[in-house]
């Protein structure tokens, strides 16, 4: 009978696979990558979560054993049939769950691999790390009874490749027997995974104390990183040495100083406020300053002065702000930088932001790991905080994040769930230096941050206030006008820049249509565009406000964070106070003490209803009444706001830190009632591969009416494709539903 290799991956030549595609070859590569990661990021990983360096030998034992075990469940007839394209049905039990089952006390491999670690607790942690390396355990461990998976599978433990794979652990203390026999797993037996996982999860919860759980979280992250590296490196002809080379100490003061020079210009030094931020030695520093005060430059100075050698990760609330931050501060600044978010691949193509040479991100096998070797990463907050919710991108980034300095910008924009995860980050990763930046922060949220920091560091975070010369500069003047269009027309006729912010997309479209009818050339910018069109509209808006001539931008709440522009007139719907402060931050933004401009007018239009509560509207009216009629500064806006003391969001639970036996991802943001569709006109190109679905995905509110007929629409890459007659789309106006 011909020899048939055990595969770890699908292969174009399954009867003669490459070494890295076999179970033994892939496991060996993951073990090698794990060794390199432990050498260069083991101690830093422990320090990041507040564990002592003396725990390193224990961490090493756990990660090495988990790396050896993580894919042993692939030695099943179900998995081998699947990767050889001989099986269409799902696996009865996933390979990661089978690895845990095989090694659990009393199961076939317990006596074989148990000698690799010193204690039973360490052994449990190694099993749980191995079981969780695909973040689908235990909920997706066993196939549904009606899935066609069958009722039993066979583990090929006697196969020569399986024995050879176990032998890779000989140096770890694994004792390889000579009489391993195949094992049949049946869902009808009490000793099968389907009956034991729930019982084991309870055992694991009881076995681990708080320190053990932190150690387990680190082990999980390092194993996942090693597994990704072990899969990607052989595909590009690289060995495990790439890991160590890539994770060398990053930029020092001189390198990050280039970013400051690039932004400020030669011969222009930082402001005293920026120097004060850079001088903060606190583990957590809060920067409370208005729009346009130079907070981002201060963040680079902080990283250069206080944390040289650490990579700098700057996070933003939205993909648009992350991309703008990369373009404005990092691209062409003579540092190794990277843009990192779910749509970065599209933005890199659109803006020509080629950070990794000629290889496109979609063709780069190491793309998920490129952030490891960067001096500066700009990304969404989801990337970093997603780590705590077991999200893929955050876990892949762990080897870089464990030794990073992290900036969270615009933290006032976080919803309750995301802010709760930020609090958990501050408590759970005390060894990661953090800079929190915001224009305004409710007292309850500030108190919650202070409490979280005191809990782990014993002192309050440092607070640096914005520069008085900018915060007290008169920028704004409230005006009254019976007809906002008349006010806008006057400003445009004088060559001015006008920003009109509405609270709903529907109101935005109506203002856009009315402006068109008046013969103006408005630009619409809101959430209901195909992504490539939204990026284009973003670019049109920025360009229109940077060049000479009149400009009118009609937008929604996305203008509060996503646009770095300065308007001469602001028209806005009444909104909660923090939102209004952000919108005003787009008005007269370029005025400075050296080049002071007259206070610019703003007009507040009445508004009530969704998406804001009546209490928010009442508070905003009271705030406006307290502002008076004279010229206003950012300091005036903050001083007039006396928010009612509300309970701050509680710490969110963290599946990564708290999950123990469970490893499924959690939610980072509050759920949205909308759905993301693909237009029927784009569907053929997406199917043909000439368009990526992320390029043309279109966020929409649910169709009007009580019908849920959209659930029956055809799907394309999980996105509904509505009938052509149900949606109207204009690349300059956006999308809206037609009445059924």
The assigned CATH architecture of the largest domain is Orthogonal Bundle
Write down the overall geometry: globular
Report mean pLDDT, rounded to a whole number.
89
Secondary structure tally, helices: 31
Give the biggest sheet.
Answer: 7 strands, parallel
- Structural class designation: alpha/beta
Across the major sheet, the strand order is 5-6-4-7-8-3-9
Strand content: 5-15%
Percent of residues in helices: 40-55%
For the termini, the CA-CA separation is: 64 Å
Cα Rg = 28 Å
Top-tier CATH class of the largest domain: Mainly Alpha
Low-confidence segments, given as residue ranges, are: none
- CATH fold assignment of the largest domain: Hypothetical protein af1432
User: What is the number of domains?
Assistant: 4
Please provide the count of β strands. 22
Quick description:
With about 750 residues, the chain is α/β, with parallel strands linked by helices. Helices cover about 40% and strands about 10% of the residues.
């Amino acid at each position: 009978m011909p020899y048939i290799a055990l595969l770890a991956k699908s292969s174009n030549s399954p009867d003669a696979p490459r070494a890295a595609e076999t179970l033994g070859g892939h496991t060996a590569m993951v073990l090698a990558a794990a060794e390199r990661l432990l050498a260069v990021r083991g101690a830093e990983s422990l320090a990041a979560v507040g564990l002592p360096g003396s725990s390193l030998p224990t961490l090493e034992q756990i990660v090495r054993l988990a790396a050896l075990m993580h894919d042993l469940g692939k030695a099943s007839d179900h998995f081998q049939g699947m990767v050889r394209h001989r099986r269409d049905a799902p696996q009865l039990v996933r390979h990661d769950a089978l690895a845990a089952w095989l090694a659990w006390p009393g199961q076939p491999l317990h006596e074989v691999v148990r000698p690799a670690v010193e204690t039973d607790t360490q052994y449990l942690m190694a099993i749980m790390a191995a079981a969780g390396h695909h973040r689908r355990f235990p909920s997706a461990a066993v196939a549904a009874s009606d899935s066609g998976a069958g009722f039993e599978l066979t583990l090929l433990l006697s196969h020569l490749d399986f024995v050879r794979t176990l032998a890779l652990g000989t140096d770890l203390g694994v004792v390889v027997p000579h009489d391993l026999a195949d094992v049949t797993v049946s869902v009808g037996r009490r000793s099968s995974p389907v009956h034991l996982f729930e019982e084991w999860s309870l055992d694991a919860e009881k076995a681990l104390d708080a320190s053990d759980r932190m150690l387990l979280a680190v082990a999980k992250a390092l194993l996942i990183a090693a597994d990704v590296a072990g899969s990607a490196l052989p595909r590009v002809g690289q060995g495990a040495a790439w890991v160590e080379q890539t994770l060398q100490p990053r930029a020092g003061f001189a390198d990050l100083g280039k970013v400051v020079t690039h932004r400020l210009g030669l011969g222009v030094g930082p402001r005293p406020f920026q120097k004060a931020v850079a001088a903060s030695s606190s583990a957590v520093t809060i920067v409370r300053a208005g729009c346009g005060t130079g907070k981002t430059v201060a963040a680079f100075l902080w990283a250069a002065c206080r944390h040289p050698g650490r990579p700098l990760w700057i996070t933003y609330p939205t993909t648009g702000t992350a991309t703008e931050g990369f373009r404005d501060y990092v691209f062409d600044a003579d540092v190794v930088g990277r843009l990192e978010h779910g749509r970065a691949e599209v933005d890199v193509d659109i803006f020509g932001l080629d950070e990794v040479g000629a290889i496109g991100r979609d063709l780069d096998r190491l793309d998920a790991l490129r952030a490891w070797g960067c001096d500066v990463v700009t990304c969404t907050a989801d990337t970093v905080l997603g780590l705590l919710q077991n999200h893929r991108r955050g876990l892949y980034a762990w080897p870089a994040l464990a030794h990073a300095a992290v900036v969270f910008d615009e933290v006032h924009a976080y919803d309750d769930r995301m802010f709760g995860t930020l609090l958990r980050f501050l408590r759970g990763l005390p060894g990661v230096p953090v800079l929190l930046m915001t224009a305004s922060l409710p007292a309850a949220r500030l108190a919650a941050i202070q409490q979280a920091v005191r809990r782990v560091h014993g002192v309050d975070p440092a607070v640096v206030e914005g520069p008085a010369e900018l915060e007290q500069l008169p920028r704004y003047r409230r005006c009254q006008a019976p007809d906002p269009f008349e006010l806008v027309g006057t400003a445009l006729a004088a060559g001015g820049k006008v920003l009109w912010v509405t609270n709903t997309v529907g109101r935005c479209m109506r203002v856009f249509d009315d402006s068109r009818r008046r013969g103006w050339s408005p630009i619409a910018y809101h959430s209901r565009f195909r992504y490539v069109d939204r990026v284009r509209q973003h670019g049109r808006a920025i360009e229109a406000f940077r060049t000479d001539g009149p400009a009118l931008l009609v937008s929604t709440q996305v203008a509060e964070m996503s646009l770095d522009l300065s308007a001469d007139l602001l028209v806005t719907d009444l909104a909660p106070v923090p939102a209004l402060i952000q919108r005003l931050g787009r008005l007269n933004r370029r005025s400075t003490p050296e080049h002071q401009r007259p206070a610019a007018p703003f007009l507040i239009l009445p508004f009530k209803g969704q998406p804001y509560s009546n209490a928010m509207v009442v508070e905003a009216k009271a705030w406006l009444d307290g502002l008076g009629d004279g010229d206003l500064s950012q300091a005036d806006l903050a001083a007039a706001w006396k928010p009612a003391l509300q309970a701050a969001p509680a710490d969110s639970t963290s599946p990564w830190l708290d999950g123990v036996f469970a490893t499924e991802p959690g939610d980072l943001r509050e759920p949205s009632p909308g759905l993301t569709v693909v237009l029927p006109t784009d569907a053929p190109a997406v199917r043909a591969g000439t368009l990526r679905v992320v390029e043309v995905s279109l966020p929409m509110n649910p169709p009007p009416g009580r019908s849920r007929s959209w659930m029956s629409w055809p799907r394309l890459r999980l996105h509904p494709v509505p009938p052509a007659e149900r949606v109207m789309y204009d690349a300059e106006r956006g999308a809206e539903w037609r009445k059924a």
